[in-house]
């Protein structure tokens, strides 16, 4: 048998093996899809009110300003036709090259074929022209309010991003080249990845962002040394082992958001905020929240305040023997820390010596990108889902946050996984992002209705454990850190909430980057800078205009401020105490519980 015959036989055998793999994978896919949950139509797209508003606005434009409609349509068709003619002329000349492509550049179209090959260039240009036409049509609607405009912009952008030619095999040169290079093996591996994700998510398609086998919490991620010294149904309290002989007298407790796991602040030793704080000579405690199931359906915000915040504060005071402690709240945990501080003020309880807020919203008058999800049609759907499941499932939380950055968190990962057949990367931040949690049903609805929609905390007041508290009741010394490109807690909205707080001693730091990278920004990286201003925390524009930019992390500046609020140095405290036996080593047990409904 010749070498050529052997090569043909090997190729034929490989083809048969791939066909068998595809058949087996297809059977698994059918099985996975049979378990798909019934859709909640209220969470699938714009409701009838939005559709009616858009249609009414369009009809009004048509009746009152027909020339405007015709102009927009003519502009789109002229651009599309002009490009078609230019492409046809270029091909007719026999050069097999596209017409001049002036851009603009788009990171989705990095492959040189998008610019040099007439087929791919034509598809790209027609897509970009059509995308601009859709966006212009929404932007030019006059008879529509700002909220509906934001929602229409969001949903139209979702459609535009979905229809990108990079999302389809026949029009993705990267995927086609990979398929040819691997003799189709990449497509079979992509199908394996697709089936894996369907099986892992009960028939729903959630692309795996990171290699789930690359990290084990407590082994190579979340490894700062400490002990669980208290546990109740809502949280485990972790006390970290000191790394200095002496520590500041006043201890520090961090309340992380219970939407995600606390170890975002302890991913690796070199970027661990937890390790850095301990190394600065602070006695550090952190709350690790329980991942709730259906039995937590009736747990509300008041339960988090009473059994979470107040209980954790009491335990830290008892463990250290200190009458006052410093507290940090991150994101939603910062919002709830503010509620707790307002309550303590009403009760004349001075347990909190100072507070720090990371990317925290307390004034929801500007809902930012979440405007889309905070209207009644969507929140009604969430409420119905919570009534059915008892919790707001991590599935809905993950999907909502992913669609806010669909190009980066949905389509690009899906292309790499399903069309290129690539394994998910071993990336700690994406691993954490996919390690999501449920929210108790009652708490989720209270938060969305009372705080986000009705903005009671910054307005008439929000009722907590028998007291009506407002943002003005927060009167402890405080520092707030916001992030310049944060799409979850926009910095100006965060600033406006802090500006309304009753504290006479307050400072604000604006970090570069976003919701996570702007906070997890260690001094060793020298990656993102920050702004500090001598202007009062009153008007965000004035504050920013007078701000001074500093290279590198904001951690040292905050550390200096915190040290001044933390008293003299005392001998370092070992975790636990006579009345607080060590229950287990950090990171504890709650952080390892898988989200279930």
UniProtKB/TrEMBL annotation:
GO terms for biological process: poly-hydroxybutyrate biosynthetic process. It is found in: Cytoplasm. Coiled coil: none annotated. The keyword Transmembrane helix does not apply. One of its GO terms (cellular component) is cytoplasm. GO terms for molecular function: acyltransferase activity. It holds the Pfam family PhaC_N. NCBIfam families: PHA_synth_I (TIGR01838). This is Poly(R)-hydroxyalkanoic acid synthase.
């Amino acid at each position: 048998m010749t070498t050529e015959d052997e090569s043909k036989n090997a190729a034929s055998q490989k083809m048969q093996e791939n066909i068998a793999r595809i058949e087996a994978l297809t059977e698994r896919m059918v099985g996975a899809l049979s378990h798909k949950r019934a859709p909640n139509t209220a969470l699938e797209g714009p409701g009838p009110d939005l559709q009616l508003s858009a249609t009414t606005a369009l009809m009004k434009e048509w009746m009152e300003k027909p020339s405007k409609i015709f102009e927009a349509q003519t502009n789109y068709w002229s651009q599309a036709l002009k490009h078609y003619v230019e492409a046809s002329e270029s091909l007719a000349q026999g050069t097999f090259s596209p017409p001049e492509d002036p851009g603009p550049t788009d990171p989705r179209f990095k492959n040189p074929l998008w610019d040099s090959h007439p087929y791919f260039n034509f598809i790209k240009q027609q897509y970009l022209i059509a995308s601009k036409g859709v966006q212009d049509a929404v932007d030019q609607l006059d008879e529509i309010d700002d909220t509906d405009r934001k929602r229409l912009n969001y949903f139209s952008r979702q459609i535009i991003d979905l229809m990108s030619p990079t999302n389809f095999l026949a029009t993705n040169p990267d995927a086609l080249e990979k398929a040819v290079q691997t003799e189709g093996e990449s497509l079979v591996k992509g199908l394996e990845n697709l089936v894996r994700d369907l099986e892992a998510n009960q028939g729903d398609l959630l692309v795996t962002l990171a290699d789930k086998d690359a990290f084990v919490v407590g082994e190579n991620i979340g490894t700062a040394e400490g002990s669980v010294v208290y546990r109740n149904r809502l949280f485990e309290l972790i006390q970290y082992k000191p790394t200095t002989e002496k520590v500041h007298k006043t201890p520090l407790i961090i309340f992380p958001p219970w939407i995600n796991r606390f170890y975002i602040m302890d991913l690796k030793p070199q970027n661990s905020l937890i390790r850095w704080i301990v190394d600065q000579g602070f006695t550090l405690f952190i709350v690790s929240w329980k991942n709730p199931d259906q039995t937590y359906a009736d747990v509300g915000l008041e339960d988090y305040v009473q059994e979470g915040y107040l209980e954790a504060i009491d335990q830290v005071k008892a463990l250290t023997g200190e009458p006052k402690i410093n507290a940090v709240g991150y994101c939603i945990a910062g919002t709830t820390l503010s509620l707790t501080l307002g309550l303590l003020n009403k009760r004349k309880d001075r347990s909190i010596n100072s507070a720090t807020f990371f990317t925290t919203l307390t004034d929801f008058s500007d809902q930012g990108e979440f405007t889309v999800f905070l209207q009644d049609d969507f929140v009604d759907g969430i409420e119905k889902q919570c009534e059915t499941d008892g919790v707001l499932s991590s599935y809905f939380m993950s999907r909502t946050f992913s669609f806010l950055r669909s190009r980066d968190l949905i389509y690009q990962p899906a292309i790499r996984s399903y069309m290129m057949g690539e394994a998910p990367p071993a990336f700690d931040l994406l691993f954490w992002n996919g390690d999501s949690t449920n929210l108790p049903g009652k708490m989720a609805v209270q938060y969305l209705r009372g705080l986000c929609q009705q903005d009671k905390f910054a307005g008439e007041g929000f009722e907590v454990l028998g007291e009506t508290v407002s943002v003005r009741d927060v009167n402890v010394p405080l520092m707030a850190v916001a992030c310049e490109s944060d799409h979850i807690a926009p910095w100006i909205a965060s600033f406006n909430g802090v500006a309304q707080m009753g504290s006479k001693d307050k400072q604000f730091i604006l970090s570069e980057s976003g919701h996570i990278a702007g906070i997890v920004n260690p001094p060793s990286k020298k990656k993102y800078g920050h702004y500090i201003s001598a202007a009062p925390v009153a008007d965000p524009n004035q504050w920013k205009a007078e701000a001074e930019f500093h290279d590198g992390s904001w951690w040292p500046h905050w550390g200096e401020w915190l040290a001044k609020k933390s008293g003299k140095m005392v001998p370092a405290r070992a975790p636990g105490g006579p009345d607080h036996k060590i229950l287990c080593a950090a990171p504890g047990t709650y952080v390892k519980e898988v989200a279930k409904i």
